[in-house]
Design goal:
7% helix; 7-stranded antiparallel beta sheet; mainly beta; 1 helix; single chain; two-stranded antiparallel ribbon
Amino acid sequence: MDIFLSVNNRAEIIQLPIVPSEFKIKSPVNNETFTTINQGDIKLFGESGLKAIVIDAFFPSKDYPFARSNQYKGWEYVKIIESWKERKLRVRLVATGTPINMVFAIDDFVFGPQDGSGDIYYSLSLEEFKDIKLQKKAITPESKPTIKKSNLNTGSPVKKKGTKKKAVKKKAVRKKPEKKVK
């Protein structure tokens, strides 16, 4: 198995020189748990979360017979990945011999020399990148809100559709008959 990282539709490609002994793809689901009065905790199924992968290996500073590629040396790989991160580029990861062919964003890149060999050990954390899909909606004259001009300056409330004014009955006050004074 070989692992390739590329950007901009394969305009820049690197093959990882040392394939990690293992890596796993995290594939979360955004389920939610709610506590109810009568049933206790209940689980509601959510949508799939973003997949993630962490690759831990090293970039050799010299040629090794077990290296998959000698295209670059140690710090050159770091420089390339750092430039991708700074330019905020999507990274396609392809692992040959597997169905893994996904687009990721670089979440974290930790690197440095470790054992005096000059090799650069690294941990590359990638999280799935999905394009945002927005629906376009046209504004039609019927969907525009309208404001009645007569109500703008008077301060009187706008009458809502389907409501009627209630007539308020005034109580008739009976006058007591006047007594005639003789």
